[in-house]
C-alpha cells in the first residue's frame, strides 16, 4: 500500500503567521516532511525556519519593462490611432482643460504686458474681457491684436494732436486778424479825431 500523504495545513498556517506573509508564500522542505509534520506550535516552526526547513518564497517579479517600452513608443505617437481609442475626445483630453491652459497663457501674457507698461490698464481690461469671450485662439493672435490696437490708438492720438494743433493755429489766426482789424479801426478813429481837431 502507498504511504498516505501527510497534511501540512496547520504547519503552513503557523509558518505564514510567524513569517508574516500569505500561505502561498510558504515553502516546506519536501525531504523533511516527517520533521515538519511534528511541529505543531509557533515555537517549533521558528526552530524549523532557523534550520532552513521552512522558508518564505521570494517576491514574484512583476516586470515593468514591457510597459515602459510601450509608454515610450506612445510618447512618440505610436499605438494611439483611431483603432486604439476607447474614450471620446473630451474624455481623453477635456475641453475644459484645454480652455484653462489657453486662458492661463493669455492672462499671463496680459499681466506681463501690463507690468512692463506695454499696455495701459484700460487696454488690459478690454483685452482681458475679450479673452474671456473666446476671441483669441492662441497667444500669437492676442499679440497681433495688441500691436494692432496700440498702432490704431497711436494713430488716433496723432490725428487728434494734429487736429488740436490746426484748431489752435486757426484760433490764433482769427485772434491776430481781429487784433489787426481793431488796430485799423482805432487808427482810423484817431485820424478822424485829428482831422476834426484841425478844422
Plain-language structure description:
- Helices cover 68% and strands 3% of the residues.
- The chain has a two-stranded antiparallel sheet with strand order 1-2.
- Helix 1 (9-19) packs across helix 3 (42-51) and helix 6 (95-115) packs antiparallel against helix 7.
- The chain is built from eight helices and two strands.
- With 199 residues, it is mainly alpha-helical.
Question: Secondary-structure blueprint of this entry?
Answer:
Elements (H helix, E strand, L loop, with lengths): L8 H11 L6 E3 L4 H6 L3 H10 L2 E3 L8 H11 L13 H4 L2 H21 L5 H12 L6 H60 L1
Antiparallel strand pairs: 1-2
Helix pairs in contact: 1-3, 6-7
Key attributes of the depicted protein:
single chain; two-stranded antiparallel ribbon; mainly alpha; 199 residues
Q: pLDDT under 50 segments (min length 5)? A: none
Rg measurement, Å: 48 Å
Please bin the fraction of helical residues.
55-70%
Mean of all residue-level pLDDT scores = 94
Q: How is the main sheet built?
A: 2 strands, antiparallel
What count of helical segments does DSSP give? Answer: 8
Total strand segments? 2
**Helix vs. strand class:** mainly alpha
Order of helices and strands: HEHHEHHHHH
Coarse morphology = rod-shaped
Separation of the first and last Cα atoms: 177 Å
State which percent range the strand residues make up. under 5%
Widest sheet: strand order? 1-2
